[in-house]
């Protein structure tokens, strides 16, 4: 037993790996995990695509005026819905699970910077939402006969709406991840919230046909504005008169989404924890 | 003994929870390069003590130094010198052994070679297996791989072999012995006395939030704790004699009985016997001590 005389190892003085490098490595790991988990893949990634297929089949005979078919009408809603799923739902559920399974605690015990963890989560949201959008657009355009807009101004709008949508959804998802009391409860707590918002925000219906009180409630939440913004991009200009107030309300939408983004960031920073609630 | 000889130095650690005092004034020194085993019943304060050292919890009172740093102020560089293997894990089920060990290596400034680490924990054949499909023992060995891949100076192992079969435990012990040989300081908590006896240079016994004894596995319980007990049976019933000279005692008995001694047994208390005696002996007094600490 020569414990006391064991060599004291020198600290090598090598620098820690950079936050960005570890963040990129975490992004790769997150994406790998996402596409290996069947539940995530079906209920987050393919869900809007499946629904677009179902809706365009069910309402194939319906008339949406102006020569617009069902697939065209529902495409913007499904894009908005997809953004909300890959950001809010995906993060709220997986982070709740990771906390419950003590992964967050394990990570906190390593020299990994917390910023690298969130870098990885944002990276995951960007990769999955862009891939989902690409697939949705390809199926809509090639199989369902949806007219894809070509005006640069519309795509410029799309970019900021997309960025603001994923950003606010991600911040809110990170904050909401503390709500489920256990990993098992995560899906059961998060999914109904998302579903309810989808129904009220006119993702599955013609928004203007919803009762006005429901539209008022939906107007508080971000998904309604995300869907409305996407309609402005993917529906013909003639549809603008059908919106409440006869306008796409892009300015107001940008404000509401930004407020939710800031609120999400502030709350997430205050409530986020690396250990389970019962861990003391 | 200077600070550089101690990987861990704790004086008067107190940690209170709303409903109880979990740690009521613990002192602890862990020398560099030794394997220190922390023993104690469930709820004795083992895990709380270890989690304070790891920086997961804040102490309410006390002086704490881990690798020369107060864990409450431990930064990323400090964390890069530690390895932590927690009690249970079931996370990251869809990633493979090789993916995880390589990924975690990327967190550290001077990691070990991931392939060598995987081989050292005996998971070479499971490199491409997703963790979901590993057995309990294999998963535990992966946890150790993730704990040591950063080449830590100090390794925390919290009940590492719970649920292992005897063979897996033996393999695991070899792994720990190898780490010790390489100079890693190890703090081990365990329920298994044979494990502590086999692996630890020194053992600390915690009960009711206090460190009631620290010593080598051979000297724990003080002089006399290992004294042989000679027992036999006669017309008056069962007899037990504690003696340093059991052979002489048996010779005397043989002379008295004129041959065979009925139900003769010579026993030396195991570490487990000594440990159980220790725990039992503090039951009441430690409660009183705790009351004092609450006030």
Structure characterization notes:
The complex is a heterodimer of chains A (280) and B (295). With 280 residues, chain A is mainly alpha-helical. Chain A has one domain (18-279). Helices cover 68% and strands 0% of the residues of chain A. Chain A has ten helices and no strands. In chain A, helix 1 crosses helix 5 (114-142). The longest helix of chain A is centred in the first third of the chain and has 31 residues, at 70-100. Among the domains of chain B are: 3-81 and 153-215, 3-Layer(aba) Sandwich (Rossmann fold); 227-268. Chain B has nine helices and twelve strands. In chain B, the strands form three sheets. In chain B, strands 5-6-7-3-8-9 form a six-stranded mixed β-sheet, sandwiched between helices. The longest helix of chain B is centred in the C-terminal third of the chain and has 24 residues, at 271-294. Chain B starts with 5 loop residues before the first strand and ends with a helix. At the A-B interface, helix 1 and helix 4 of A face helix 2 and helix 3 of B.
Query: Could you state the oligomeric state of the chains shown?
Result: heterodimer
Helix tally of chain A equals: 10
Derived from helix and strand composition plus strand pairing, the structural class of chain A reads mainly alpha
Q: Shape of chain A, please?
A: elongated
Kindly state the percentage of residues in helix of chain B.
Answer: 25-40%
- Mean pLDDT metric of chain A: 90
* Beta-strand content of chain B: 25-35%
* Assigned CATH class of the domain at 3-81 and 153-215 in chain B: Alpha Beta
Main beta sheet strand tally, sense and closure of chain B: 6 strands, mixed
Helical content of chain A, roughly?
55-70%
CATH topology description of the domain at 3-81 and 153-215 in chain B: Rossmann fold
Number of strands of chain A: 0
The portion of residues forming beta strands of chain A comes to: under 5%
Average predicted confidence as pLDDT of chain B? 87
Question: Which residues of chain A form runs of ≥5 with pLDDT under 50?
Answer: 1-10
Spatial extent as radius of gyration of chain A: 22 Å
Number of helices of chain B: 9
Give me the CATH architecture of the domain at 3-81 and 153-215 in chain B, please: 3-Layer(aba) Sandwich
Poorly predicted ranges of chain B (pLDDT <50, ≥5 residues)?
284-295
């Amino acid at each position: 037993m020569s414990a006391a005389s064991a060599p004291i190892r020198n600290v090598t003085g090598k620098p820690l790996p950079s936050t960005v490098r570890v963040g990129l490595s975490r992004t790769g790991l997150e994406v790998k995990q996402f596409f290996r988990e069947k539940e995530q893949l079906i209920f987050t990634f393919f869900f809007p695509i499946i629904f677009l297929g179902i809706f365009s089949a069910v309402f194939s005979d319906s008339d949406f005026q102006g020569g617009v078919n069902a697939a065209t009408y529902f495409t913007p809603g499904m894009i908005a819905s997809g953004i909300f799923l890959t950001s809010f739902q995906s993060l709220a559920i997986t982070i709740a699970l990771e906390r419950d399974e003590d992964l967050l605690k394990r990570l906190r015990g390593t020299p990994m910077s917390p910023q690298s963890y969130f870098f990885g989560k944002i990276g995951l949201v960007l990769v999955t939402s862009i891939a989902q959008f690409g697939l949705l657009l390809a199926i809509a355009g090639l199989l369902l006969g949806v007219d894809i807009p070509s005006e640069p101004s519309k795509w410029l709008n799309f970019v900021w709406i997309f960025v603001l949508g994923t950003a606010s959804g991600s911040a809110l998802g990170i904050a909401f991840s503390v709500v489920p009391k256990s990993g098992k409860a995560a899906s059961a707590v998060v999914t109904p919230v998302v579903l309810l918002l989808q129904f009220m925000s006119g993702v599955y219906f013609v928004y203007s046909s919803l009762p006005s009180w429901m539209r008022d409630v939906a107007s508080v939440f971000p998904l309604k504005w995300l869907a409305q913004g996407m309609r402005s991009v993917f529906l013909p200009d003639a549809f603008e008169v059908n919106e409440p107030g006869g306008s796409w309300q892009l300015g107001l939408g940008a404000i509401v989404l930004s407020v939710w983004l800031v609120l999400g960031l502030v709350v997430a920073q205050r409530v986020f924890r690396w250990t389970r609630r019962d861990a003391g | 003994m200077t600070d550089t000889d101690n990987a861990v130095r704790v004086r008067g650690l107190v940690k209170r929870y709303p409903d109880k005092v979990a740690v009521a004034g613990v002192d602890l020194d862990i020398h560099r390069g030794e394997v220190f085993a922390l023993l104690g019943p469930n709820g004795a304060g083992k895990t709380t003590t270890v989690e304070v050292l790891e920086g997961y919890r804040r102490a309410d009172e006390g002086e704490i130094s881990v690798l020369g740093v107060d864990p409450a102020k431990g930064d990323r560089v400090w964390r890069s010198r530690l390895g932590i293997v927690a009690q249970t894990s079931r996370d990251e089920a869809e990633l493979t052994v090789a993916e995880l060990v390589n990924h975690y290596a990327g967190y550290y400034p001077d990691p070990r070679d991931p392939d060598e680490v995987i081989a050292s924990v005996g998971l070479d054949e499971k490199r491409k297996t997703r963790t979901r499909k590993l057995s309990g023992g294999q998963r535990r060995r992966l946890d150790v791989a993730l704990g040591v891949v950063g080449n830590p100076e100090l390794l925390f192992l919290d009940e590492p072999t719970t649920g292992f079969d005897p063979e897996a435990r033996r393999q695991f012990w070899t792994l720990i012995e190898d780490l010790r040989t390489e100079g890693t300081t190890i703090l081990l908590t365990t329920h298994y006395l044979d494990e502590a006896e086999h692996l630890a240079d020194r053992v600390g016994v915690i009960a009711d939030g206090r460190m009631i004894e620290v010593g080598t596995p051979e000297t724990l319980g003080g002089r006399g704790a290992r004294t042989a007990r000679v027992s036999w049976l006669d017309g008056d019933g069962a007899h037990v004699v504690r003696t340093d000279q059991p052979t002489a005692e048996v010779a005397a008995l043989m002379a008295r009985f004129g041959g065979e001694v009925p139900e003769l047994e010579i026993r030396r208390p195991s570490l487990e016997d000594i440990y159980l005696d220790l725990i039992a002996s503090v039951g009441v007094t430690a409660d009183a001590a705790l009351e004092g600490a609450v006030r």
